[in-house]
Design a protein that fits this description.
Blueprint lengths: L4 E4 L1 H10 L5 E5 L11 E6 L15 H19 L6 E3 L4 H6 L7 H9 L5 E6 L2 E5 L6 H4 L5 H17 L6 E5 L14 H15 L3 E6 L1 H9 L5 E4 L2 H12 L4 E5 L5 E4 L16 H16 L5
Parallel strand pairs: 1-3, 2-3, 4-11, 6-9, 7-8, 7-9
Antiparallel strand pairs: 5-6, 5-10, 10-11
Helix pairs in contact: 2-4, 6-7
Length: 302
């Protein structure tokens, strides 16, 4: 499927392999060009920008935050130079990033700045359904200030393009309403009438197959049943809760709009089970498969 290479700290990775009793041999390489991809080995590029070997598992630590940030930046630069075909990330701990002085709250924002991307979004995907988010890491009270026909329309187009790359010939999209019952014609808010409905009509006139605004509880029920290939959610929890429930641990995070491929798990760092050998790798394996498939769709090497 692909030739994986780990970016990180060799001592920490070896401890992880020992913890689960893996017989895989860790092969430390200087750069991605030296990756052999042999099934018996796990290639790792050692990035020594932060001393993380002494970090206490399951704790917030600036060294861990700095190391995770620097590992990601190295991978982004390699992908931008086309020396690797894509990036698959494990979760970042946002408090550790902040402790290290990193100004961005998570992967998506770091990826966007490093790649010089202005139009981007987080997508959560399961088999047969993908959800893009209009807003992401912000207070719910701030969401209302980030809703415009232009911005939401751009997210819909990003989702449409991603679904086509994932093999959907004619993507069927649904736009979630903001207010309960889609506002009841202005009774519970007017965003549906002033922003969302005119946008849907415009996109349909341009030839896109999109419906909405539809109350989120109804929309996701219909989407999971197969009526839609993609959903445009307006804020973080509106999309995350539904997809994670439907995915049952198999959801994947995809960064849409970037000039590189990046996928990730759809869960957090789970400090409560750190280094106990209990972590479920299903989401990480699925994210790797998505990245490999996207690389093939772009005619990359992977």
């Amino acid at each position: 499927m692909c030739k994986p290479v780990v970016v990180g700290d060799a001592a920490v990775m070896q401890r992880a392999l020992d913890l689960i009793g893996s017989k895989v041999r860790l092969q430390v390489v200087d750069n991605s060009d030296q990756v052999k991809g042999k099934s018996a080995n796990l290639d790792l590029v050692q990035i020594g920008s932060a001393d993380i070997a002494g970090v206490l598992p399951g704790t917030i630590d600036a060294r861990a935050g700095r190391g995770a940030h620097d590992f990601l930046v190295w991978a982004i630069d390699e992908a931008m130079a086309r020396r690797i075909d894509g990036i698959v990330t494990a979760p970042l701990h946002k408090e550790s990033l902040a402790a290290a002085g990193v100004k961005h709250p998570g992967h998506t924002e770091i990826l966007a700045e490093r790649t010089g991307t202005s139009e981007f979004a987080m997508v959560l995907a399961i088999e047969g359904l993908a959800v893009i988010h209009q807003t992401l890491h912000m207070a719910l009270r701030d969401v209302f200030n980030h809703l415009s026909p232009q911005s939401i329309g751009e997210k819909a187009l990003l989702l449409h393009d991603l679904l086509k790359r994932l093999g959907v010939k004619t993507p069927r999209l649904g736009l979630a309403a903001l207010n309960p019952h889609a506002g009841e014609h202005g009774l519970f808010g007017d965003e549906e009438e002033t922003i969302l409905r005119p946008l849907v009509e415009k996109l349909r006139n341009q030839g896109f197959e999109i419906q909405g605004p539809i109350p989120a509880d109804t929309l996701f029920q219909r989407a999971v049943a197969g009526e839609f290939d993609g959903v445009v959610a307006l804020y973080h929890d509106q999309g995350h809760i539904a997809l994670k429930l439907a995915g049952r641990g198999r959801a994947v995070n995809i960064s849409a709009g970037l000039p590189i491929i990046r996928t990730s798990v759809a869960h957090g760092t789970a400090f409560d089970i750190a280094w106990k050998g209990k972590a479920d790798a299903d989401s990480l394996l699925t994210a790797t498969r998505y990245a490999a498939n996207l690389a093939k769709s772009r005619n990359f090497v992977c």
